[in-house]
Write a structure and sequence with these properties.
With 218 residues, this protein is an alpha+beta fold. The chain has a single domain (32-215), classed as Envelope glycoprotein gp160, DUF2291, alpha/beta domain (OB fold (Dihydrolipoamide Acetyltransferase, E2P)), CATH 2.40.50. The chain has helices spanning 2-25, 32-41, 48-67, 71-80, 82-89, 143-147, 159-182, and strands spanning 69-70, 91-92, 99-113, 120-125, 130-134, 189-197, 206-215. Strand 6 and strand 7 form a beta hairpin. Residues 1-25 form the signal peptide.
């Protein structure tokens, strides 16, 4: 009987060790900042501004840069087949949602529209269609949130927290870019990275900017 008990304990110990080993093989190593961000978005005391401040430079900006597609290539792919372009180059926040893309390119400021709180700057991108940069204070859509592959609805406590993240990402980006955006005028040449939801065919492309740099005319 004692021998059976010893064998049982050894078998249990081996099973525990095996389970631990299997668990470790599925582990993903994360930085301290990433771990804090994961814990934050699952908290009942979630604060979207704090969460976005934690991930903006370490995760969001690198992800935007990695996903950015040159405007000439992106719009050519969209014009050829929007769904194929979306599946290859973009993201969808959910079933039936519009494709979201991150675009990069250089171009010339054609117009600045200050006629409403939805202020826009139209930029004619080289070799591509013109886009309208949304500069706020009113910005439509959540393209910055929806372009990021590591932000998903199911990771947050509720729909309100998920929506707050979209607003916080937009606010953070525009706050950082405000001095540059406020100083732009027609004729200025700029280098732009931004995200947009694909509009219905024939409608303007409204881009939420991620980076905007004034460059010397070539």
């Amino acid at each position: 009987m004692a021998r059976l008990g010893l064998q049982h304990r050894r078998a249990m110990r081996a099973a525990v060790l095996l389970a631990c080993a299997l668990a470790l093989t599925g582990c993903k190593i994360v930085t301290i900042e990433q771990d804090q961000a994961i814990r934050a978005k699952r908290s009942l005391n979630f604060n979207a501004d704090t969460y976005v401040a934690r991930i903006w430079r370490s995760q969001a900006l690198p992800a935007f840069q990695a996903r950015a597609v040159p405007a000439k290539d992106l719009f050519a792919a969209i014009d050829a087949d929007a769904d194929t372009a979306g599946a290859k180059l973009g993201r969808r926040s959910g079933e039936g949602a519009a494709w979201t893309f991150v675009v990069s390119g250089e171009g010339v400021v054609d117009a600045v529209d200050d006629s409403s709180r939805r202020r826009t700057i139209e930029v004619k991108l080289d070799g591509a269609r013109p886009v309208k940069l949304q500069t706020g204070p009113v910005v439509v859509g959540t393209s910055l949130r929806d372009a990021l592959p590591f932000i998903a609805f199911d990771d947050f406590t509720d729909q309100l927290a998920f929506a707050d993240v979209g607003r916080a990402l937009t606010k953070t980006s525009l706050s950082n870019l405000k001095p540059t955006l406020d100083g732009l005028k027609p004729g200025d040449r700029v280098r732009v990275v931004g995200a947009f939801d694909l509009p219905p065919k024939g409608q303007p492309v409204f881009v939420t900017p991620i980076s905007v740099d004034k460059v010397a005319a070539s």
